[in-house]
Amino acid sequence: MSGRLAGKNCIVTGAAGGIGLETCILFAKEGASVVMADINGEALEKAAAVVLHFKADARIKNFVCDVSREESVQNLVASADEWGGVDVMFNNAGIMHGLDADAVETPEKIWDLTQNINVKGVWFGSKHAVLSFRKHGKKATSVINTASFVALMGAATPQLAYTASKGAVLAMTRELAMIHAREGFRFNSLCPGPLNTPLLQEWLGDDAEKRFRREVHFPSGRFGEAIEQAHAVVFLASDESSFVNGTDFVVDGGLSKAYVTAL
Ligand code: NAD
Fold it and tell me: For a substitution probing ligand 1, which of 11, 12, 19 has the most ligand atoms within 8 Å of its CB?
């Protein structure tokens, strides 16, 4: 098998759609073996068929997993043992709940649900990846944790639980990078800008005002595409990024650098 990820065993969470699915396609094209994990088993089956459409001889398997449950994540990581253990862990699953709002209006149960998936899920994925790297004697591995540009900027369009969860991903990933650097385990955060994926598009729906409040700030004048994130993930997963560690890897069309809107 040739390619930029040849010989690497990769696990992708949130693999049934959006960034996760586009990443699985590119990972397979680049020669990786891929465990595709998602809480939605039906969508996962369709996603696996899409990967095989692009790369008929891809070595992939599906794993239904709830990242907020440790046992589920432990079993997910163990599923790569038969291939020799995981080399690349992409902790990408996340939610942005419709009832997430400001400090006053956000229900506590939505706060807890968001932290359980977006933060605890990343911790469990990182923890079991580290244990597996050690068990299999890996020396050059990569963990990529999906955060968001909202962890870097203040927005007056509130989604407080989500924003707090992504800030936690950045801080956690940075510290993990320092703790495990001498073991050869790299940890980086991916910070996508607003994307053309179901997570955001279904949330915005046909609310023109809600859309305008965001779109007016885009320097590029458009939402990003999931595949533009996936290309960055391939780089962070591959040995090409061997000296990139602990970064907030921002792929946002320049949004987080904008002051006055480009016309
Ligand atoms: P998406 O909704 O298309 O994909 C998310 C996937 O995660 C879904 O397939 C869903 O079933 C899965 N999932 C949800 N809860 C899960 C759980 N408990 N266990 C396992 N899987 C679960 O969204 P996307 O836009 O591809 O988002 C991927 C990541 O990117 C998320 O972490 C999201 O917060 C982040 N992000 C998205 C945007 C955006 O604008 N779409 C911007 C910045 C960051």
Answer: 19
pLDDT of residue 153: 94
77: helix, strand or coil = helix
Question: What ipTM was assigned to the predicted interfaces of this complex?
Answer: 0.99
Closest ligand 1 atom number to CA of residue 147: 44
The owner of tokens 């369709």 is: 46
| Per-residue pLDDT tens over the stretch 151-165 | 999 988 899 999 999
Q: How confident is the model at residue 94 (pLDDT cuts 50, 70, 90)?
A: very high
Residue pointed to by tokens 């933060």: 119
Which atom of ligand 1 is nearest the CA belonging to 198?
3
Sequence-distant (≥ 6) Cβ neighbours of residue 188 within 8 angstroms: 142, 143, 144, 145, 173, 177, 236, 241, 244, 245, 246, 247, 249
CB-ligand 1 contact for 125 (6 Å cutoff): no
